[in-house]
Amino acid sequence: MPAGSDAGYYTKERNPKTERTTSRKSWFPAISIRSALLLILVAALAPAFHIIAVTGAEHARHMEEQAAAEALRQAAAFGDIQTRITESTRQMLAVLAALPSFRSRNDDIAERTLQAVHSGNPEYLNLSLTDGAGRVTASSLLARGTDLSIRPHVHRALTSGRFSTGEYILGLVQSEPSFSYSFPIPDESGRPYATINALYKLSAYAVLFETFKLDPDSFLGIVDRNGIRLFFYPPRDANPVGKPIKEEVWLRIQRGDDAGTFLDTSSDGVVRFFGYRKLRLEGDPAPYITVVYAVPREKILRASRTITRRNLLAMAGAAILALALAGILSEILFGRRLSRIGSAVDRIRGGDLGARVRLEGDSSDLGRISAALDGMAESVQRRDAEKEEEALRLSRLLDEKSVLLKEIHHRVKNNLQMTLSLIRLQEGASSEDGEASLKGLESRISAMSMVHEMLYGSENLTDIDLGEYCGRLLDLLRSSYAGKNPLQVSLTCETVRCPLESAIPFGLITAELVTNAFKHASGRGPAAVSVVLAHKDGTACLTVSDNGPGLPPGFDPAGSRRLGLQLVLALTSQLRGTLTWENDGGARFRVDFPLDTPKGPGAPDPEAG
Fold first, then answer.
1. Can you tell me the distance from the alpha carbon of 511 to that of 565, in angstroms, rounded to the nearest whole number?
2. Quick check: pTM over 0.70?
C-alpha cells in the first residue's frame, strides 16, 4: 500500500465503530519505513546532542572553578615568594643589627659594612643606619644627616620596636620606586635607639617574576597597605606602578579574608577571576602587602565554547550523514543493529562513556550511525581523560613548586643561622685585628651568599657547579687582596655538580684556604697561589698551595688557635671528608670529600666545630 494512500484510513464497511477501530490500526502503518527510521535516528541522536551540550556547560563551569582556584594558587605561590623576600630582608637587617659596629654606633665601620653588603645585593636601592631621631648616621649611598624621620617604616620601627615595612615611595637615591623595610636596634632597656633600613627596588620584581611563564592575558599585581600598585606584570599603560588600583577591586580585597577569589572587571574593562593573598608581619594586624593574580573569564569560556561547538558540529555532520544514508537504504533490515544503537545511546545517556555500538565492517546507514555515535563517545571520553590527566599534571606541578619553595626557605634559614654563628665565632677570636677580622667575616659571608646568587640565577634549585663557584669565589677573594702584594693565581677546575647542602661548607673551606694562601704566599719572585678542583668516582678533591715559607715542623691544624683552620677542620668533618697537608715548595692543603648528599637531620652548627 502506498504511503500516502487514503485507502489505509477506511474499510469498505461504513460502520462508525468499525471505522474508528480500523482507522486506529491503520494509522501507524501509514508511516513509511524511511520516516520511521528517520524518527528513530532523531530520537537516538537527540540524547547525544544533549550530552554534548550538558557536558559543555559542565565543562565551562568546571573551567571557571579551575580558573578561580588557579588564580588563588598563583597568588599564594607568588605570596610565598614575597614572604621569602621580606624574611630574607628581615634576617639580613637582623644580622647587621647584631654586629658590634652597629650596636656601638661606630659609623665609619658600619658604613663600610653597609656598602659591602649593598654591593653584593643589587636588588636593594640603599641601606642606611639612622639614630633615634631618624637622621642617617651611615649609609651605602645617602649622605649622613639626611632626615628619614618622616618615612613611615622608620617611624613604625622606632615607635613599635618591631621589624616594620613602609609603603610605595620614591627613593632619595635616583628617585627610583621602592618598597621600604626597617629593623630597630634596642638599647639595654629594650627601647629602640636606632634603625637599620633597606629600600627594595621595585624593578627587581621584574627580574624575579619574568622567569615564570604566565598566561599573556592574565596578570600579577602587588599592592601596598594603601592600595598603591608596587608591581604589575606584564606591564601595561592602564596599570602604572605607583598609582592606586581600581577602587571597587581594592574594597572587595579589603573586605575579604586573608585569601580569596572573586569575579570583577579590571581597569582595562576585562572581566576576570581575581585571586588574592594578604601578607602580614608578626604582631601587625594590618597586611603590609597584597598579592593579586587575575585570569580573564572570557578566554576560559571561549575555549569551552569552542570545544562544545566543535563536538556539536562533528555530531551534526555525523547525524546528517546518518539521516541521508537512512533515507537511501530504508529497505535494509535494521532491527538488531538498531537495538544495539539504542542500547549504546542509553548507556551513554546514563554516563557510561565507554559504551560502543561497534558494527565494524557494516557500511550501511546504521553502520555509519553507529560509527558516528562511537566517535562521539570516544571524543567525549578522550576529552574527560585529557581533563583528568591535565588536573593531575597541574596538581603535581603545584606540589613540586610548593616543596621547592619550602626547601629553599629552610635552606636560607639554616644558612643565615650559620652566618650568625660565624659572627659569634669571629667575635670570640682575638688573634686578629679589627680590619682583618672584618675582612675574614666578609669573605665567609660572601662565600655563602654567592651560593644563593648562583642558585637564584639557575633553573636548577638542587645543586650547583663547584667549578664555576670556585672560579667566581677566587675572583672575589683576589680582588680583596689585589692592592697589597702582586699575586699570580693559577686555577684549574673541572665541572663538578654538588648538592646545595655541601656547596656552602665547600665554599667556606675554599675561602679559608685561599685567604690563608694569599696571606703566606711570598716565595722567590712574585707570590703564587694554585687552586685545583677535580673529581673521580664520586669524590671531589680540592688542592690549595702557595710558594710561601711552608708549614712549621709538627704543624697540626687541630692545635691551631686561628679560627680559619678550626673552621676548615669542622667543615671538612661535616662533609665527611679528609684534610691533609704537606710542604712542597710551600704549603699545600688537600680536601677530599664525597659528592653525595650528607645523611642525617641537618648540617651541624659551626660553633660546635
1. 11
2. no
